[in-house]
Amino acid sequence: MSATVPPADPIPFTHRAREVTLAGDRWEGAGPPVVMLHGGGQTRHSWDRTARRLAAAGRRSITLDARGHGDSEWHPDGDYAMDGLVEDLVGFVATLDEPPVLVGASMGGMTSLLACGEHPGLAAGAVLVDVAVRVETQGVQRILDFLAAHRDGFDSLEEVADVIAAYNPHRPRPKSLDGLRKNVRLRDDGRWYWHWDPRFVDIPDEARRTARLDRLERAARAIDVPVLLVRGGSSDVLTPEGVEHLLRLVPHAESADVSGTGHMLVGDDNDVFTATLEGFLARVAGR
Q1: What's the predicted TM-score (pTM) here?
Q2: Contact 268, 165 (CB under 8 A)
Q3: Which helix (H) or strand (E) holds 275?
């Protein structure tokens, strides 16, 4: 598919899951829906550029805020373990008119892996973005340290930008700070806070979120739909060995590296990632 006209603005929607109400955006189009799930501590807006490009190519695109993130409700008991995330996703997919392709980064990828493996027929395909069954402890800890810091907020958007730049030194610091407003919120005390429930970081495992390794391996072996694993070339969370381990569990899976990117590769080089994704979607649609 090639872009012809700029995509229309997305249509906001909400979905009532069993325990929380989720927020999302959708772009109309053809073919299987492409449901994009962000990583821990992010929001659905991390996918905006990708979703707009897919929509411009005529594809149906949906971005979803996980429970406790963005505009979705915080769980009343602070339950952000993988069981709840998978349950939310399975319930949302049941509202669609056909199985979607799930595209998940980090936490969203782990959610997609479990949902596909434990619920046959749920999806038409899955794209795992810099996450697999085996991830690196040191890289995960760096994520946790970043998420747990600054729980008391920030004085300004400039301070937010400085913190993000220090975490991702290879990524150019944005000239405009307007985009940061989608990931932080200004509260009554005049400080900016991350746009997610701070209880989210009380689970000390951002990648697996209490899901056992044996459960993840069983789910991976059970996946019978096309799978694409995309690794950031400089990722400290997913190594080439982690990629090879997943490919042994899912022999029909494809893999790709995006050079010069880290764990947050969607933001590092969005256009290269989206081109890789579009190629996979074309192959899935042609099955």
Answers
A1: 0.91
A2: no
A3: helix 270-285
Q: How many Cα atoms within 13 Å fall on the side-chain side of residue 190?
A: 1
| Adjacent-strand bridge partners of 22 | 15
Q: What is the pLDDT of residues 141-191, one digit of tens each?
A: 888 888 888 889 999 999 999 998 888 776 777 778 888 888 899 999 999
Domain coordinates in residue numbering, the chain:
11-149+207-285
User: Are the beta carbons of 28 and 7 closer than 8 angstroms?
Assistant: no
Which CATH architecture describes the domain 11-149+207-285? Answer: 3-Layer(aba) Sandwich (3.40)
Which runs of consecutive H residues, i.e. helices, occur in 25-134? 48-56, 82-93, 107-118
The three state secondary structure string of 141-207 is HHHHHHHHCCCCCECCHHHHHHHHHHHCCCCCCCCCCHHHHHCEEECCCCCEEECECHHHHHCCCCC
Check pLDDT > 90 for residue 90.
yes
Instruction: Please tell me the distance from the alpha carbon of residue 130 to that of residue 145, in angstroms, as a whole number.
Output: 18
Q: Which of 82, 194, 205, 80 is nearest to 141 (CA)?
A: 205
Q: Would you say residue 95 has pLDDT above 90?
A: yes
Instruction: Name the token pair of 127.
Output: 């794209």
